[in-house]
Design goal:
This protein has 694 residues and is an alpha/beta fold. It is built from 15 helices and 17 strands. The chain has a seven-stranded parallel β-sheet, with helices on both faces. Strands 1, 2, 3 and 4 form a four-stranded antiparallel β-sheet that branches.
């Protein structure tokens, strides 16, 4: 699933989206932030910005008292993000004091939190080996992290921090820059690696991506003929499985829980079709297949009808409440800005506008102006603007009107025989689609071309990006994902990046068959763990490497997200985790990369997965004799270990600390420098030679 983006105007340099609005992937992760919005009569209010914060289960709530309104505001922007997000949970927690007798003192100027591409502030950070997935090679040993120093933690994310080295730069990045300077300088890649990006679309016109798009040399562009006889007409640079032969594209779609709800309460043929109700009785076919426990949900992708209906109802209720809160927030924010415009004599018609410095310098003359100033500065310090609140309202309305609407059915646009899971050839060649923001950001992390005009560059240099569009604004459908994987394999992909996920997978067997197909062809699959702040041993995030019939895919890496913040925030607060379900972590917070029209920072495991895909492509390009299983083993074995380092457990609303090693198989963060050294040591030995365990 992904979250819709607003179109952006082209611009020359990297633009940074403020911290509050950029968390991505399919479900809203938990983030921190505080502001006071005052309704009714202004009073003396104070507010604190907690270092960490979360709301269990995405609870949305409003609290009124002493003239102040504390808002828990859900801001969804892919992430999304995709939801691939898709989304961010912004928590506004107001601490309102009782009215004071003396006039309130002017609020102190808040510290800036917005990063720029030129930022170079750095931070040190501090972090289980398991034979569950692979036997690590003997040499070299994984890097050990240096000891952290609290005072060195930066306030903002350094530009391209994910490429930095912890020892040299004091930031827990991937050590890509060090690898380039010390291991790859003066060397040329030995082959070009194809990475398929299954996502919501990739911008084919982006200046940093157009030269690295994969090209099907057997296809003649634009002649409307299937020149290579593969069943896909004009698949020159990729394919779109959620478009019609007439050129139309699916934008919004329903969530899988909505489609499952329809199956449970309507005929089994109503899988997103908007078929008439059958009296609310689950169909016999669905009941037999789906009425199972949570353990079976994790294995089969289907939950009980009772659980589905409960979750669907909860989502509708909470989203409706969220919309009400956002509407209130929008009204209050507009009130505060109106007060300030009047006080500062801002003439909007003449192009005049409010800004942080101007408001900070202003000395309020009334209590109302004091409150308006405090609201504006605290929101501005967290990057909250009228546009962000408006977009949050639009996203929430979209969620209700499309994602959670059982009567909405965009599948007729595609025109396929939806129930026929064996059908392969449908769609169109428009791999960009109506919203390519998420996929473009993912593609840039893997292989964007860097030049002297920007700070954005991909991890791999000898790479071609194969866009395969299969993820709408809503939850992706299993049939499309299965066909996208097969398309990538059949057209030569070496790596498949999958920055998306959902909580149900009713046609999981079809996806499993495609995953087996990729596995048998030696293709490495990299999947984002998801942004629920949840343990994947307890919560599904499909697709998964475990097959319905037992066993698991060998060439699969599940990736969680790490943060530049380090210390006890080394694990990004939104990231899913799992001692056996997540293989490794990679940078995934405040990542600067390409988007249509320019560049921006986004966060999510959607960003962490392409870090690993890019690293895999980098290794394969210099060491072509290594197989996909070799590359996976090397990436996991060379990760920097933080097994005993205590971090706040992602999703914890009480700040519970756990060993970082308990969050994944490796207990580590990927390290390009160590991985390339290991690849060099192994490349001379016969492929597949067993390596002793260190």
């Amino acid at each position: 699933m992904r979250v819709r983006r607003e179109p952006r105007a082209p611009h020359a340099g990297p633009a940074v989206v403020p911290e509050a609005a950029h968390l991505m992937h399919r479900r809203p992760p938990r983030a921190r932030g505080t502001a006071v919005l005052c309704a009714r009569r202004p009073t003396s209010c104070t507010a604190a910005l907690p270092a960490r914060g979360a709301l269990p289960g995405g609870i949305i709530e409003a609290r009124a008292g002493y003239g102040c309104l504390a808002l828990f505001l859900q801001v969804k922007e892919p992430i999304v993000t995709k939801s691939r997000l898709f989304g961010a949970l912004l928590v506004f927690v107001a601490a309102c004091a009782t009215p004071q007798q003396q006039p309130p003192a002017p609020a102190p100027a808040p510290a800036s939190v917005a990063a720029t591409p030129a930022d170079t502030a750095t931070t040190p950070t501090v972090a289980r080996d398991s034979a569950a997935h692979a036997t690590p090679p003997a040499s070299p040993t994984p890097a050990a992290p240096p000891q952290a120093v609290d005072e060195d933690v930066p306030r903002t994310a350094p530009a391209q921090w994910h490429l930095m080295d912890e020892t040299a730069d004091r930031v827990a990045g991937m050590s890509v820059l060090r690898a380039r300077n010390e291991l790859l300088a003066g060397r040329q890649p030995k082959r070009t690696v194809i990475v398929a990006v299954i996502d919501g679309g990739v911008d084919s016109a982006h200046v940093d991506l157009r030269s690295v798009l994969w090209t099907n040399t057997r296809e003649v562009p634009g002649n409307r003929v299937d020149d290579d006889h593969d069943g896909y007409v004009d698949d020159v640079h990729g394919w779109n499985f959620i478009g019609g032969a007439d050129g139309r594209d699916v934008d919004q779609d329903t969530f899988e829980v909505t489609r499952e709800y329809a199956r449970c309460t309507r005929d089994s043929t109503a899988a997103g079709s908007g078929a008439p109700r059958n009296g609310g009785t689950p169909s016999a076919a669905h009941s037999a297949a789906a009425d199972t426990g949570n353990g079976d949900l994790l294995r089969t992708g289907r939950g009980s009808c009772a659980a589905v209906e409960q979750e669907f109802t909860q989502q509708v209720t909470s989203t409706t409440q969220t919309l009400s809160q956002i509407t209130t927030a929008q009204s209050l924010f507009e009130r505060a800005t109106d007060v300030l415009r009047a006080a500062l004599h801002v003439d909007s018609a003449a192009g005049d506008s409010l800004d942080m410095e101007r408001v900070r310098a202003y000395q309020p003359r009334t209590a109302e102006e004091q409150q308006a100033r405090a609201v504006y500065l605290q929101l501005a310090a967290r990057g909250i603007t009228a546009d962000i609140i408006r977009n949050a309202r639009q996203e929430t309305e979209t969620r209700l009107h499309y994602g959670l609407n059982p009567d909405f059915n965009p599948r007729t646009i595609v025109g396929d025989q939806y129930a026929n899971l064996a059908q392969r050839h449908y769609g169109n060649p428009d791999f960009t689609g109506p919203d390519a923001g998420h996929g473009t950001h993912v593609a840039g992390i893997i292989g964007a071309v860097q030049d002297s005009t920007n700070d954005v560059g991909g991890i791999a240099t000898a790479v071609r990006i194969m866009p395969v569009r299969a993820v709408p604004d809503g939850d992706e459908r299993d049939k499309d994902i299965a066909n996208a994987i097969r398309f990538a394999v059949d057209h030569g992909a070496n790596v498949i990046n999958m920055s998306f996920g959902k909580g149900y997978s009713p046609q999981k067997q079809a996806v499993d068959d495609a995953v087996r197909y990729a596995d048998a062809h030696g293709v490495l699959m990299v999947h984002a763990a998801g942004n629920d702040g949840a343990d994947l041993a307890q919560k599904g995030n499909f697709p998964t490497p475990r097959y319905v019939t037992g066993g698991r895919a060998a060439n699969w890496i599940e990736v969680g997200a790490s943060s530049w913040r380090g210390l006890d925030s080394l694990a990004a607060p939104f990231s899913n985790y799992g001692a056996q379900e997540v293989d490794v972590f990679a940078p995934g917070e405040d990542i600067l990369s390409t988007v249509p029209g320019g560049y921006e920072r986004n966060s999510g495991t959607s960003m962490a997965a392409p870090m690993v895909s890019g690293l895999a492509a980098l290794i394969m390009s210099y060491y072509p004799s290594l197989s996909a299983s070799d590359v996976k083993r090397i990436i996991l074995a060379s990760a920097t270990r933080y097994a005993d380092h205590l971090v706040v457990r992602p999703g914890s609303d009480e700040g519970e600390r756990v060993p970082f090693g308990s969050l994944s198989v490796t207990g580590g963060i990927v390290n390009a420098y160590a991985a390339l050294r290991m690849a060099e040591a192994e490349s001379g030995s016969p492929r597949g030679t067993p390596q002793p365990t260190p």
